Amino acid sequence: MHSERALLAGARRIVVKVGTSTVAHPDGRLNYSQVEQVVRGIADLGNEGRQMLLVTSGAIASGMGRMGLRERPDDTADKQALAAIGQAQLVQTYEKLFAEYGRVVAQVLLTRHDLEDPVRCANARNTLLRLIDWGVVPVINENDTVAVEEINFGDNDKLSALVARLVNADLLIILTDMEGLYTADPRHNGEAELLNLVREITPNLISAAGGTGSQLARGGMSSKLVAASIAGEAGIPVLIARGSRRGVLREIVEGQNTGTLFLLKHDSPADGYENRGSQVEARGETA
């Protein structure tokens, strides 16, 4: 076990973020096998006494699958309607699968405004802390049905980092369709190498991050770097790994050399993020 990864074994409060590419097939239909694998991993860690929170994408993609759409629409009303359809299926699936492992879930829908307004932010924090104190797994998503700007928010990557700061998490795990962060886009560069440890987000890393990995998703490795920066400012380690990897959550907390671990200096934020979540952290501390 590498010394940098040994600390992950002691993480008691963990936020797990799953992207659209992990929970859905390319046509938008839910990938029940992968969703069940994530649920099983979270339930297993919860049985060890860890407090687990899940931030999930996939509502719009799920809605597309239910409506038989092959391409993500551009019209805001269409996307909001699809999110409303897909969110119901997504939460129902999580509730059923977690129940099979003896876990109760709670749906929590958040918008940017919820995390910017002091009173609403405090309420959100208090609700999340009470849920995990009860052993409930919060299933968190952006409220795409009513929040226009959140639909282009970065596939919940930024939200997961803000939630991690809000609850003072010990670790943020971002599961995606890549093994982690590479020196270049491995889809186009066969010589790209996986980075096991990142201590500073440099312009070169941002450039190498590339774009969105799939048609359904709206995030990408660049948005995950922003998330790592937001969480890193609060001293929260971030681990990016492939969500389809069997037993990936167990490997991470055992300190295995899986994915890319971010242990950032507090003075190395990703460029272009306007407030880097500092307001959320400050307001969360007053709750």
What report would you give on this structure?
It contains twelve helices and eight strands. α3 (32-47) crosses α5 (76-100) and α4 crosses α5. The chain is an alpha/beta fold and 287 residues long. The longest helix is centred in the first third of the chain and has 25 residues, at 76-100. The protein has one domain: 3-Layer(aba) Sandwich (Carbamate kinase). Residues 212-217 and 268-287 have low confidence and may be disordered.
Structural class: alpha/beta
Largest sheet: 8 strands, mixed
Sum up the overall morphology in one term: globular
Q: Helical percent range? A: 40-55%
Chain-averaged pLDDT: 84
Enumerate the strands of the largest sheet in spatial order, edge to edge or round the barrel: 3-4-2-1-5-7-8-6
Radius of gyration over all CA atoms, rounded: 17 Å
How many domains make up the coordinates? 1
CATH superfamily: Acetylglutamate kinase-like
- Please report the distance between the alpha carbons of the first and last residues: 37 Å
User: Are there runs of 5+ residues with pLDDT below 50, and where?
Assistant: 212-217, 268-287
SS elements, strand count: 8
Shape-level CATH architecture: 3-Layer(aba) Sandwich
Run of helices and strands: HEHHEHHEHHEHEEHHEHEH
Provide a count of the helices.
12
- CATH top level is Alpha Beta
CATH fold-level assignment: Carbamate kinase
Work out the strand percent.
Answer: 5-15%
